[in-house]
Amino acid sequence: KRLILIGPPGSGKGTQSPMIKDDYCLCHLATGDMLRAAVAAKTPLGIKAKEAMDKGELVSDDLVVGIMDEAMKKPSCQKGFILDGFPRTVVQAQKLDEMLEKQGTKIDKVLNFAIDDSILEERITGRWIHPSSGRTYHTKFAPPKVPGLDDVGICKTGFFRPMRPWLSWQRWRPWVLSVQVTGEPLIQRKDDTPAVLKSRLEAFHRQTEPVIDYYGSKGILANLPAEKPPKEVTSEVQKVLSS
Ligand code: AP5
Ligand code: ZN
Ligand code: ZN
């Protein structure tokens, strides 16, 4: 499958991606993640992208089209992919169509994470990320809690949710402790402030909403009720993709 996830900041694109990816063995291509990695590594691309990202504005079309073109060529992406946060302008959508046409493929479905702006500030300001795995948590909606160890705070230690919840608490404990020892703290994104969110939302309404119409007119758009709890959104996604 070749899928696009589209939605405002905090609508749940990154949260749903691992589930979709595992269900269909797809590669997950998130322009935001790639750009943040480039900024952290201070590559020429990262240096160019940083200013716009810090302000919550979109990076130039040429830049993101370039990195996406590269990324989609990876062997692991040949069977299908999830595009998370791309395309975000109509120009990007047109360029993407051109790239896919050259490969003789096309997008199967565009999942639109529809949600009211008013919910997003709480989601964004409560988000915490485990840097090496990219897993996303939320202090209220998806806390990284381990039974019996509630006293271990999210900022102090950075442990993350069990991958295998059926493991007994005793078998888990050493693992939790080892995470504490390696001390990988959860981090917050620099652009996850109310002020920067405001300009990210502006960019979404002005530049990205037309992309939703672009795919709507192609008849491949599916609207998801993204204000529902994560698990319910996952089953909505599964419904759309199996139909
Ligand atoms: P990007 O990284 O793409 O950020 P974004 O679009 O603003 O989206 P987010 O990652 O903030 O939201 P998400 O939908 O993934 O939410 P999540 O699942 O984490 O882009 C960053 C910047 O890079 C842009 O501003 C731009 O500068 C640049 N850029 C990127 N792509 C570009 C492009 N194509 N063109 C130009 N520039 C580009 O969820 C958020 C929180 O809510 C989490 O804590 C989560 O646990 C919680 N949560 C998730 N789902 C639910 C739920 N159903 N109920 C309750 N809580 C939930
Ligand atoms: Zn994201
Ligand atoms: Zn709007």
Give a short summary of the structure.
The chain has 243 residues and is an alpha/beta fold. It is built from 10 helices and 7 strands.
Structure report:
There is one protein chain. By secondary structure, the chain is an alpha/beta fold. It contains ten helices and seven strands. The strands form two sheets. It has a five-stranded parallel β-sheet with strand order 2-3-1-4-7, with helices on both faces. The protein has a two-stranded antiparallel sheet with strand order 5-6. Helix 1 (13-24) packs across helix 10, helix 2 (31-40) packs across helix 3 and helix 4 packs parallel to helix 5 (90-103). Bound molecules: BIS(adenosine)-5'-pentaphosphate and zinc ion (ZN) (2 copies). One zinc ion (ZN) is lined by residues 13-14, 30, 32. Its EC number is 2.7.4.3. Keywords: Kinase, Nucleotide-binding, Transferase.
Write out key terms for the chains shown.
single chain; 243 residues; alpha/beta; five-stranded parallel β-sheet; two-stranded antiparallel ribbon; 12% strand; binds BIS(adenosine)-5'-pentaphosphate; binds zinc ion; Adenylat_kinase_CS; EC 2.7.4.3; transferase; Adenylat/UMP-CMP_kin
Portion in beta strands: 5-15%
H-E string: EHEHHHEHEHEEHHHEH
Number of helices: 10
Q: Rg from C-alpha positions?
A: 18 Å
Distance between the termini: 13 Å
Based on the structure, what is the oligomeric state of the protein chains?
single chain
InterPro entries: Adenyl_kin_sub (IPR006259), Adenylat/UMP-CMP_kin (IPR000850), Adenylat_kinase_CS (IPR033690), Adenylate_kinase_lid-dom (IPR007862), P-loop_NTPase (IPR027417)
Catalytic activity: AMP + ATP = 2 ADP
Enzyme class: transferase
Protein name: adenylate kinase
